[in-house]
Amino acid sequence: MPTVLHGLVALRRASASGPIAISILLLMKVRCTRTLYSYGVQLYSYAVRGVKPVPKIFFIYDGAMISRTSNPALSRDRIIEAACAFADVHGAEALSMRKLGTELGAGTMSLYNYVQNKEDIQDGMIDYVFSSVPFPDGDSDWKAAIREITISVMDRFTVHPWVVSLLMVRKHFGPGSMAFMERVLAIFTDAGFSDEDTHHAWQMLASHTSGYAFQQVAGPGPMDKKVANHDAMLEEIDDAFPHVARMAPLMAGCDYRSEFAFGLDIIIDGLASRLAE
Fold first, then answer.
1. What is the mean pLDDT of the chain?
2. What is the DSSP letter of 75?
3. For domain 130-276, which architecture applies?
4. Domain ranges, ordered by start, for the chain
């Protein structure tokens, strides 16, 4: 370990003990370079006044110590928001700490003052999406509330399509995601559903929403008119698969939003029937 770094560690430890410990260390000039000695004087002045030192990042280069204060414009929230905006345009897979630093006009290493790593940012991005889902007022009945919330989630997944892929690889739920889950589960519980049926309801709604969101991200299916050789394919299957051929025009004109709403109504009606038993 370089001598200057030894001195830095010693000064940091001394600063925790107060001005006397720092002054003794400075008087002894143990392992002090001129730059380190100046830093010790600064720490001493802070300690005398009872002021906590300004956070600094120290770099050792050719024996010289350079300090840089943290970027006051940065924060965890701002980093997460910038990551979401970047992913909206370029996709989550293109996100990197270096690119995010460039977007924020900050050094890559400065981001680590606020986030642990890229995975921490990804968890924050998922949290950001679920935290933005609005909830209806308390006067709504459970069916209207669940329908409104689920459609709102689908809207968020449409605006931020990358969240579907992140949900498949990241299993950590942050406070925003947990708060969302808590409120949805409370709606079912307050409506009179058992814990087991509440669990089933949550799983059905989650699967239905993420499934349709994934289809939107994946693009047109084999029956879509945009697919190359669509008409030729229908002619080939006409005799062998008459039901498929008959339904092909409807499948080709599939509107994900209306299909999603149709399925959601069936789920809610089924849950209402279950509750009435």
1. 77
2. -
3. Orthogonal Bundle (1.10)
4. 3-69, 130-276
